C-alpha cells in the first residue's frame, strides 16, 4: 500500500517573534516494512539554518532556526510511503509474557535495546492502577501476544473516545477514572500498564489513513497526528504494533513517523521562541492511498 | 570489617606520631590550646564575612563555610599513588561514557545492565551520537570522595563527573589558613595549588575549536546565578580562571554558534564551563524549564563550534551502582585491574548480590542505584519501622538500589574546645585533563564530621572542612603549564564585554543606593523638625512640604501625612521605619543587587556593602517605639546620618577601586538619573506654599527646605548671605552645573557618560539630556527676569512636573538602549494547548 501524507502546522503569534528554534520529528522513518519513497519538509518563513540527523532512537530529526522577525510559522511535511507490515506470528505461539519480561530485565544480546522501553519515562510513569488494569489480561503463562490483543480490545471497549476533556498533563490514573480520552491517553495507559508488569512498550507517533477503505467505518484519530503502542514479543518475534484507540493490530492503515519512550521523545513540532506572546495553532493532516482516490471517491 | 576500629591519621598503632605530622605538631603545641581555639573563631568569622556558603547539604538557609585551623597531612608518596589511581579511574569512566553515548557495546554484551543506563535520569539521549561519529572526551574535570579504611587503604566512595564542587573552597581554605594561622603554614613547605589552576585555565583555551580569524578563544562559565547554592564558588573560580561568569539569559545561539550578549554586541564563546545541570542546557532538547539553558546550544555542540565541559551527559557516571561493575569494566576497557579499590558495592538488581546481602541490611549503606546526589542511608541507624519499610521498597524494586560496605573512616586531629580532638574525615581530590593526561590538584578538601553514632555508624550531615596538605619533597616536583602559543592579548578598555544583564544590575544598584540616601536625607530633615515640641508656622510649612516628599518616597502614606506635626504622625513615621517598611525594603534591594554583582565587585567593596547594610538594618531595627518620641527621633536621625555616611563610603570606594569603564559607568549613571528625578520632585513639593504667589515671604520656608535637601545651605550663604530669593535658590538647585547636588550637574554628568558609552557624540539620549539642561536654565532665567520672583517660581509647577516625566523617559531610554538587547524566551511544544490537538 502506498500513501501520500501531508501534515501542516501553523502558528500565528500574538506579537513578533525575533528568534525561533524548532525541533521536528516529521519525516517518516525508514523501516523494513515501511519504505519512504520521498519526503520533504518546507517552512514559511524559510529557516536560516537547518540540520538533519538521527536521534538516539534512530528517528529522523530536523532542527530549524529562524533569526528574522516573523509573525507566523508554518511547517509542511509531505511524503510518499510504501507500507507493508509482515503478518504477526500466531498469538498462541508467542512466548509466555513472564518469559518476555525476564528477557527484557536481563538485557544483553538480543534484548538490550528493547529493555530501554520497560522503564518509567517522564510522561509515562509507573502507575500501579494501570498495572492492575493491564494484569487482568496477563494470567500466568499466557502467550504475550494473546494478552496484548485482549488488552488492546479492552481499552477500546472500556473507554470512550472524546476530544477536549484531557490534555498533555492528564495523568494516566485520571484517564482510568474518567474512562474517556483521545489516542494519546489510551496509548499512555497501555504503555504504563505494560511497563508496570515488566513488558517493554514504546510510544509510536504517526498517522492513520483519513478516509476508510470503501464500506468500512472511518477510523478514530484521522485528520490528526496519531499515536499507538509498540510492544515487544521477545528476541525472535521482535516488535508488534497495536492501536488501542481503534482496537486494531497495525497492518496497512498507519504510517510511522518514529518512536520513543513517550510523546516527549518524539513530539512532531517543538520550539523555543524569543517574543511571540500568545499563539494560535492550526494543524491539518491528510493521509491518502496513492491511486485509490478514484476508487474511494466513486 | 564493619566492627574494626578507625585508623588514626596522626597517631600510629603503637601510640607514636606518624612522621609526616612532624613539623606541624611542634607549631601546634607552641601555638597553645587557647590560641588555637581563638584562631578557629577568626576563621569562622572570616568565612561569614566572605559570604562563603557551605557545600554540605542544607535547607534554604545554607550555613556559612567553616574551615578547621588544623590541616590534614598526606605523605607525598601516598598522595601520588592516590592521584595515579584516580587518573586510571577517570580514564575508565571516560571509556564507559564514550561507549554509553556511542555504540553501547557494553549493553549489547551484557556487561552493563539496562537498568543502570536507561533508568538513569542523567543518561541524556540528546547527547548520544550515532555509531561512527567521532567525539571529544566527555570528562575534563573529575573529583572523587575517598575514605581511609581501618586496613590503611583509601577507598573511593563516590565519583563526581557532572561538575566537581569544592575547588573554590580549596583555594579559600589555603588563603585563610595563611592569614589566620601563618605559623602552621610556615612550618611545612607545601606543594602548591597554582599549577593545577594554571593547567586548567590553559587546557580550557586549548579545548576551543580553532577560530577562523585567529582571535583569542572565548571561555565562559555558565552558572544558575545568585540563587545557586554554589554561587560563591562560581564567583571565585571564574576569577581564578579569568573567564566570564554568565547565566543562560546572557547567551544566545546564532547560526549554529554560541555568543555572549554584551554591550558591544555578540561576542563568540568557544568553550563553556558548565556549572548547571546537564539536563537544563538546552530547552529545545532537555528540560523545558526556562532560565538556565540556551535554545540551540546542543545543535552548536554537535556542529563542533562550541565545547561544553564537562559534557552535559557526563553526570551519568555518578551512578553509585556503577561502582559494582568497574572492576570488570577496567579489564574489558583498559585491559588492566583497578589500581584504587572502591568501597565494596553491590547492585541489588543482581540476584547474586541480593543473596549476599540477604536479610542483613545493617552491614551496608543503602544508596539509590543511579542517583549519586541522594545521601546514602545507614539502615542500622533507622528506627525499626523505617528499616522494615526500606527493606520493603528494596524488595519491590531491587534494581533501584545499591549497597556499599560500611566502613569507619579514619580520624584526624581537629581543633575543639578541649584542644585537639580526633574526628572522622572524608577526602575529596580533584583532577583535570590537560589534553594528554590527568593532572591532580596537589592538595584537596577534607570534611570532618562529629563522631559517628557508635551503635550505627551513621555519619551526621553537618561538619566542617579541612585543608589538605601535601608536603614538598624536592624542588624538581615543581610543575607548570606547558608553554602555549596564545597570541598576546589586545589592549582593551571600556565597557564592551560587560554582559547587558550586569550593566542593568549596576544601573539599578546606583539607583537604589541613591534612593536610599535620598530617603535618609528626608528622614533626617524630618526628625530634626519633629523633635521641636511647638513648631513655628515656618517650621510647620516646611514640615508640610517634607510630608509631601515623604509620601512620594513611600515613607509615609498620604492619609497620615495630612496630620504632620502631631504625635500620632511621628509615631507612624517611627513605626514605618522600624518595621519591615520602605527603608528595610531599600536596604534589601541594595543587598540583593550587591549579591547579584558579587563577581563584579572588589572584595573591599563587597565587604563594605555587606557590613554597612547589616549595621544599618540593625540601627533602624533598634529605633525605639516607646512613649518618648524624642528618644525615637534622635535614634532615627542618627540612623539616617549613618546611611549618608554609608553612601559616601560606597561612592568613595567606587571612585577609588572601580575602573572607570564598565560597571562603574552604569553605577554612576543610575545614581545621576535617580538623583535628578528626586531633585525635581522635591523642588516641586517645596515650592507648593499656599499664598506664596501674592506674598513672597510665604515662599521662604520652601526655598530654605529646597536648599537644605540639596545640602546647599552653606554654598548659598557664601554667595548671597542671608537674603532668600527665588531666582538665586533655583539657580543653585536647578541650573548651576558646578553644584554636585544640583540638577544640572546630574544631567551634565549623565550626558557625558552617555557619550562615553556610545563612543561618539550625537546620540538621541545625549541630546535628550542636553535639552533637559537647557530647560533647567530657561526656567531659572524666567524667574530671574520676572517682576515677582516668588510668583514666577510658583508658576513653574507644570514645567517641573514635565521635567520629572522627562527624566523618567531618559531612564527608560537608557534601559531600552543598553539592557533590552533581547526579550525573554518561552517555549512552544508539548504544552497543553498544542497537546490537545497534537495527536488523537
Describe the 3D structure.
- The complex is a heterodimer of chains A (about 300) and B (about 850).
- Chain A is of the alpha+beta class and about 300 residues long.
- The two termini of chain A are about 20 Å apart.
- In chain A, helix 3 (about 130-135) packs across helix 6.
- Chain A contains 8 helices and 14 strands.
- In chain A, strands 1, 2, 3, 4, 5, 13 and 14 form a 7-stranded antiparallel beta sheet that branches. A 5-stranded antiparallel beta sheet of chain A has the order 11-10-9-8-12.
- In chain A, strand 10 (about 240-245) and strand 11 (about 250) form a beta hairpin.
- Helices cover about 20% and strands about 40% of the residues of chain A.
- Chain B is of the alpha+beta class and about 850 residues long.
- Chain B has 29 helices and 20 strands.
- In chain B, strands 1, 2, 3, 15, 16, 17, 18 and 19 form an 8-stranded mixed beta sheet that branches. A 4-stranded parallel beta sheet of chain B has the order 5-4-9-10, covered by helices on one side. In chain B, strands 11-14-12-13 form a 4-stranded antiparallel beta sheet, covered by helices on one side.
- In chain B, a hairpin with a 5-residue loop joins strand 2 and strand 3.
- Strand 13 (about 270-275) of chain A pairs antiparallel with strand 20 (about 825-830) of chain B.
The termini of chain A sit apart by 19 Å
**From the helix content, strand content and strand pairing of chain A, which structural class follows?**
alpha+beta
What is the CATH C-level name of the largest domain in chain A?
Alpha Beta
CATH topology of the largest domain in chain A: C8orf32 fold
Shape of chain B: elongated
Beta-strand residue percentage of chain B: 5-15%
Helix content of chain B: 40-55%
Protein name (chain A): Transglutaminase family protein
Pfam families (chain A): Bact_transglu_N (PF08379), Transglut_core (PF01841)
Domain Transglutaminase-like (chain A): 175-246
Amino acid at each position: 500500500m502506498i500513501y501520500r501524507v501531508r501534515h501542516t502546522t501553523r502558528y500565528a503569534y500574538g506579537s513578533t517573534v525575533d528568534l525561533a528554534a524548532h525541533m521536528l520529528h516529521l519525516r517518516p522513518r525508514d523501516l523494513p516494512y515501511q519504505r519512504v519513497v520521498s519526503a520533504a519538509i518546507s517552512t514559511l518563513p524559510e529557516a536560516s539554518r537547518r540540520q538533519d540527523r538521527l536521534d538516539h532512537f534512530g528517528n529522523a530529526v530536523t532542527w530549524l532556526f529562524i533569526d528574522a522577525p516573523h509573525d507566523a510559522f508554518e511547517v509542511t511535511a509531505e511524503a510518499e510511503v510504501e507500507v507493508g507490515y509482515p503478518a504477526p506470528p500466531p498469538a498462541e505461539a508467542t512466548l509466555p509474557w513472564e518469559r518476555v519480561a525476564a528477557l527484557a530485565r536481563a538485557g544483553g544480546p538480543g534484548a538490550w535495546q528493547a529493555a530501554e522501553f520497560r522503564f518509567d519515562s517522564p510522561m509515562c510513569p509507573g502507575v500501579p492502577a494501570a498495572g492492575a488494569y493491564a494484569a487482568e489480561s496477563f494470567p500466568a503463562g499466557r502467550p504475550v501476544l494473546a494478552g496484548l490483543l485482549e488488552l488492546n480490545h479492552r481499552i477500546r471497549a472500556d473507554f470512550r473516545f472524546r476530544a477536549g476533556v484531557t490534555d498533555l498533563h492528564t495523568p494516566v490514573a485520571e484517564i482510568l477514572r474518567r474512562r474517556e480520552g483521545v489516542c494519546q491517553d489510551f496509548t499512555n495507559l497501555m504503555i504504563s500498564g505494560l511497563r508496570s508488569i515488566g513488558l517493554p512498550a514504546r510510544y509510536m507517533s504517526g498517522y492513520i489513513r483519513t478516509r476508510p477503505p470503501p464500506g468500512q467505518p472511518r477510523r478514530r484519530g484521522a485528520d490528526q497526528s496519531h499515536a499507538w503502542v509498540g510492544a515487544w514479543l521477545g528476541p525472535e518475534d521482535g516488535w508488534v504494533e497495536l492501536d488501542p484507540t481503534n482496537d486494531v493490530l497495525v497492518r496497512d492503515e498507519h504510517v510511522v513517523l518514529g518512536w520513543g519512550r513517550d510523546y516527549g521523545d518524539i513530539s512532531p513540532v517543538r520550539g523555543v521562541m524569543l517574543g511571540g506572546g500568545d499563539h494560535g495553532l492550526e494543524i491539518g493532516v491528510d493521509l491518502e492511498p496513492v491511486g485509490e482516490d478514484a476508487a474511494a471517491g466513486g | 570489617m564493619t566492627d574494626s576500629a578507625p585508623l588514626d591519621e596522626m597517631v600510629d598503632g603503637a601510640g607514636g606520631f606518624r612522621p609526616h605530622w612532624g613539623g606541624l605538631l611542634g607549631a601546634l603545641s607552641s601555638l597553645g590550646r587557647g590560641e588555637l581555639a581563638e584562631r578557629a573563631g577568626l576563621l569562622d568569622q572570616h568565612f561569614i564575612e566572605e559570604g562563603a556558603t557551605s557545600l554540605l547539604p542544607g535547607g534554604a538557609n545554607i550555613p556559612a563555610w567553616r574551615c578547621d585551623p588544623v590541616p590534614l597531612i598526606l605523605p607525598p608518596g601516598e598522595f601520588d599513588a592516590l592521584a595515579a589511581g584516580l587518573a586510571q579511574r577517570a580514564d575508565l569512566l571516560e571509556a564507559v561514557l564514550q561507549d554509553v553515548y556511542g555504540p553501547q557495546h557494553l549493553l549489547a554484551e551484557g556487561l552493563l545492565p539496562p537498568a543502570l543506563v536507561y533508568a538513569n535520569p542523567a543518561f541524556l539521549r540528546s547527547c548520544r551520537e550515532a555509531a561512527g561519529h567521532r567525539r571529544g572526551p566527555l570528562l575534563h574535570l573529575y573529583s572523587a570522595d575517598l575514605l581511609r579504611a581501618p586496613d590503611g587503604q583509601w577507598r573511593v566512595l563516590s565519583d563526581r563527573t557532572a561538575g566537581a564542587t569544592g575547588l573554590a573552597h580549596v583555594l579559600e581554605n589555603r588563603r585563610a589558613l595563611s592569614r589566620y594561622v601563618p605559623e602552621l603554614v610556615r612550618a611545612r613547605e607545601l606543594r602548591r595549588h597554582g599549577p593545577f589552576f594554571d593547567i586548567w585555565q590553559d587546557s580550557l583555551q586549548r579545548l576551543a575549536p580553532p577560530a577562523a580569524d585567529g582571535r583569542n578563544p572565548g571561555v565562559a562559565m555558565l552558572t544558575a546565578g545568585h540563587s545557586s547554592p554554589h554561587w560563591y564558588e562560581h564567583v571565585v573560580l571564574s576569577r581564578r580562571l579569568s573567564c566570564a561568569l554568565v547565566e543562560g539569559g546572557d547567551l544566545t545561539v546564532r547560526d549554529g554558534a554560541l555568543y555572549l550578549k554584551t554591550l558591544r554586541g555578540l561576542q563568540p564563546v568557544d568553550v563553556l564551563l558548565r556549572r548547571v545541570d546537564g539536563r537544563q542546557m538546552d530547552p529545545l532538547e532537555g528540560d523545558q524549564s526556562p532560565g538556565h539553558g540556551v535554545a540551540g546550544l546542543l545543535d552548536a555542540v554537535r556542529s563542533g563550534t562550541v565545547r561544553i565541559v564537562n559534557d552535559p551527559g557526563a553526570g551519568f557516571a555518578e551512578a553509585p551502582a556503577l561502582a559494582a561493575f568497574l572492576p570488570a569494566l577496567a579489564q574489558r576497557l583498559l585491559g588492566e585491574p583497578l589500581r584504587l579499590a572502591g568501597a565494596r558495592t553491590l547492585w541489588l538488581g543482581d540476584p547474586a548480590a541480593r543473596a549476599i546481602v540477604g536479610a542483613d541490611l545493617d552491614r551496608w549503606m543503602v544508596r539509590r542505584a543511579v542517583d549519586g546526589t541522594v545521601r546514602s542511608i545507614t539502615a542500622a541507624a533507622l528506627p525499626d519501622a523505617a528499616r522494615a519499610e526500606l527493606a520493603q521498597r528494596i524488595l519491590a524494586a531491587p534494581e533501584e538500589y545499591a549497597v556499599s560496605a560500611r566502613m569507619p573512616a579514619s580520624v584526624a586531629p581537629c581543633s575543639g574546645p578541649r584542644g585537639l580532638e580526633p574526628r572522622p574525615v572524608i577526602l575529596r581530590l580533584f583532577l583535570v585533563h590537560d589534553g594528554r593526561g590527568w593532572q591532580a590538584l596537589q592538595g584537596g578538601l577534607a570534611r570532618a564530621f562529629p563522631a559517628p553514632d557508635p551503635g550505627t555508624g551513621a555519619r551526621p550531615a553537618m561538619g566542617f572542612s579541612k585543608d589538605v596538605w601535601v608536603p614538598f619533597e624536592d624542588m624538581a616536583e615543581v610543575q607548570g603549564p606547558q608553554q602555549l602559543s596564545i597570541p598576546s592579548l589586545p589592549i582593551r578598555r571600556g565597557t564592551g564585554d560587560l554582559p547587558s544583564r550586569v550593566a542593568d544590575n549596576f544601573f539599578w544598584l546606583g539607583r537604589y543606593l541613591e534612593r536610599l540616601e535620598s530617603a535618609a536625607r528626608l528622614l533626617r530633615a524630618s526628625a530634626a523638625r519633629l523633635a521641636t515640641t511647638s513648631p513655628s508656622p515656618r517650621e510647620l510649612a516646611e514640615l508640610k512640604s517634607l510630608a509631601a516628599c515623604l509620601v512620594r518616597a513611600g515613607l509615609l502614606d498620604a492619609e497620615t501625612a495630612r496630620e504632620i506635626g502631631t504625635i500620632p504622625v511621628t509615631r507612624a513615621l517611627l513605626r514605618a521605619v522600624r518595621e519591615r517598611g520602605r527603608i528595610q525594603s531599600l536596604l534589601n534591594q541594595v543587598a540583593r543587587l550587591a549579591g547579584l554583582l558579587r563577581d563584579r565587585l572588589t572584595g573591599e567593596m563587597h565587604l563594605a556593602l555587606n557590613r554597612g547594610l547589616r549595621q544599618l538594618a540593625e540601627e533602624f531595627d533598634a529605633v525605639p517605639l516607646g512613649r518618648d518620641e524624642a528618644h525615637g527621633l534622635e535614634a532615627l536621625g542618627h540612623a539616617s546620618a549613618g546611611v549618608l555616611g554609608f553612601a559616601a563610603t560606597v561612592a568613595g570606594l567606587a571612585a577609588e577601586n572601580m575602573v572607570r569603564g564598565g560597571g562603574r559607568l552604569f553605577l554612576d549613571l543610575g545614581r545621576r538619573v535617580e538623583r535628578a528625578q528626586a531633585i525635581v520632585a522635591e523642588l516641586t513639593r517645596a515650592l507648593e506654599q499656599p499664598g506664596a504667589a501674592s506674598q513672597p515671604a510665604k515662599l521662604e520656608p520652601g526655598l530654605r527646605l529646597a536648599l537644605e535637601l540639596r545640602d546647599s545651605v552653606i554654598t548659598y550663604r557664601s554667595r548671597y548671605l542671608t537674603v532668600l530669593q527665588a531666582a538665586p535658590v533655583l539657580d543653585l538647585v536647578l541650573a548651576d552645573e558646578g553644584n554636585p547636588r544640583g540638577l544640572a550637574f546630574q544631567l551634565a554628568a549623565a550626558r557625558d557618560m552617555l557619550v562615553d558609552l556610545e563612543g561618539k557624540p550625537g546620540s538621541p539620549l545625549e541630546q535628550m539630556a542636553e535639552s533637559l539642561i537647557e530647560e533647567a536654565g530657561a526656567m531659572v532665567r524666567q524667574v530671574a527676569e520676572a517682576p515677582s520672583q516668588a510668583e514666577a517660581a510658583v508658576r513653574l509647577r507644570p514645567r517641573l512636573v514635565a521635567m520629572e516625566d522627562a527624566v523618567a523617559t531618559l531612564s527608560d531610554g537608557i534601559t531600552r538602549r543598553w539592557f533590552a538587547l533581547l526579550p525573554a524566551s518561552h517555549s512552544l511544544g508539548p504544552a497543553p494547548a498544542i497537546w490537545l490537538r497534537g495527536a488523537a
